[in-house]
Design brief:
This protein is an alpha/beta fold. The protein is 27% helix and 13% strand. It contains 6 helices and 6 strands. Strands 1, 2, 3, 4, 5 and 6 form a 6-stranded parallel beta sheet that branches. The protein is globular and about 50 Å long. The N terminus is likely disordered.
Length: 216
């Protein structure tokens, strides 16, 4: 986006999930970079600050999602997965009949962007490294979560080796993150990405309303 271009009207929701944010070097800086953007287009929701007791306000979270065109999951990777509160958010907010399943089309056509960091260096995510797989091998659960909800899963922004990065490296990454948020949806790669493939959930695969015995 050029400085003379009119700002996009797309709305961006950044869901920050870091269990120890005051000690964070990367996620805290990226969250601040998002907050420093011109107001009115980007909303940052710090899940651990909002819900220190893990008691999510599902209606509030769904309302924030409904207003967004781009949803960003901003968090560190812990044990090859999102932090606990981010997983709880997925479990409780992406409900049957709202986000997926019969009548669950609230998120259809939106984009999901993972912006994450790892403690391990990139070389560790390799068949010859101690994590034994490329980093992409750990993403299918998140990709499928997006697909089931009709969200297009965009190529993630990953920063490896967060513990060892110096300040200029973190600042450069934060600037890139902010530029991407500010320029969405004018990302060149979006023109070549296919729409999210429909994942129809059969009714018999989900419990009937109020049927506690059917829960797995």
């Amino acid at each position: 986006m050029k400085p003379t271009d009119p700002p996009s009207s797309a709305r961006v929701l950044v869901l920050l999930a870091h269990p120890d944010l005051h000690r964070s070097r990367v996620n805290r800086r990226l969250a601040q970079a998002a907050r420093d953007l011109p107001p009115g287009r980007v909303e940052v929701r710090d899940l651990y600050a909002l819900y220190p007791d893990y008691a999510l306000d599902v209606a509030a979270e769904q309302a924030a999602l409904s207003a967004a065109d781009l949803v960003v999951w901003l968090h560190p990777i812990q044990w090859y997965a999102p932090p606990a509160l981010m997983k709880l958010w997925i479990d409780e907010v992406l409900t049957l009949g709202w986000a997926y399943g019969h009548g669950g089309d609230a998120l259809q056509g939106k984009d999901l962007w993972l912006a994450c960091s790892t403690g391990a260096r990139e070389e560790a995510y390799h068949p010859t490294g101690y994590n034994r797989h490329f980093f992409d091998a750990f993403l299918p659960p998140l990709e499928q979560t997006a697909a089931l909800c009709g969200l297009r899963f965009l190529p993630p922004l990953v920063l490896h080796g967060a513990h060892a990065l110096d300040a200029p490296q973190i600042e450069a990454h934060a600037a890139l993150f902010a530029q991407r948020l500010a320029s969405y949806p004018d990302w060149p790669e979006l023109a070549t990405l296919p729409d999210c493939e429909a994942c129809v959930t059969p009714d018999q695969d989900r419990p009937r309303s109020g049927d506690v015995a059917a829960l797995s």
